[in-house]
Amino acid sequence: MKIAIQGVQGSYHHQVASHLYGEVSLQECSSFDQLAMAVANGDADKGVMAIGNSIAGSILPNYSLIKEQKLTITGEFYLNINHQLMALHGQKIAAIDEVQSHPMALLQCQPFFRKHQHIKLVETDDTAAAACRIAKDKKRGVAAIASAYAAKLYGLKIIGNHIQQVKKNTTRFVVVEKTDRQIENANKATIHFTTGHQAGSLGKVLTALGGLNINLSKIQSLPLIEKPFLFSFVADLEFEDLLQLEAAQLEIGILVESLEVLGVYKSHKP
User: Fold this and answer.
1) What per-residue confidence (pLDDT) applies to 196?
2) Which domains does the chain have, with CATH numbers?
3) What pTM, to 2 d.p., does this model score?
């Protein structure tokens, strides 16, 4: 089995793939766009894609990628994110002039670096890739923000432990596949819908879901690119029985202009 991930070996995406599937062949992708295309083109059997973070919020473009590439969400996984500051052995924070990492990691660790104003923060493509380059090029005076696993993998020393602002920092990942298959014991779905732009349109949808005893665990507005300043919605629904979901599709279907199920899968509790 080949799993497409954003980033390289040692990344948080790699950790999720390992949690879910053990030792697998990785299709390393430099962007989420490449990840989605790898799955859509059949270059990878599945993809593991970050979709939101408890600090930074949803990664909205990834919902659009799932729709555009006609992928299906078949699973989810919540990973506790612990950012470590790492560099070549023999260095301390005082000797570090620059820290490289993914923009999301830098954002989550900003308060830590307010105490180290001499350090320049540089955005890169991936947490683990930043660590890999430091080890490969033997860059002194440069550190990376990545996982403890990445530090061990690339032989770097951790010079700052758990440096993220919020200690309970969790990222939600979804598994995406090209084919739509039945998931055993499915109890969660992600849907995308567009309402009319009359007063109360969204409220009617929410009322219908509540009447069916379906828990709306998340709702997020997405911009309609072809219609500036108008929005569609993506929502996560939790249910006990697939019949509830079928009933919801029927009831919501007559209340909205469009409705698409992006995936039906088994929930994972963080």
Assistant:
1) 79
2) 2-80+169-177 (3.40.190.10), 84-160 (3.40.190.10), 188-265 (3.30.70.260)
3) 0.90
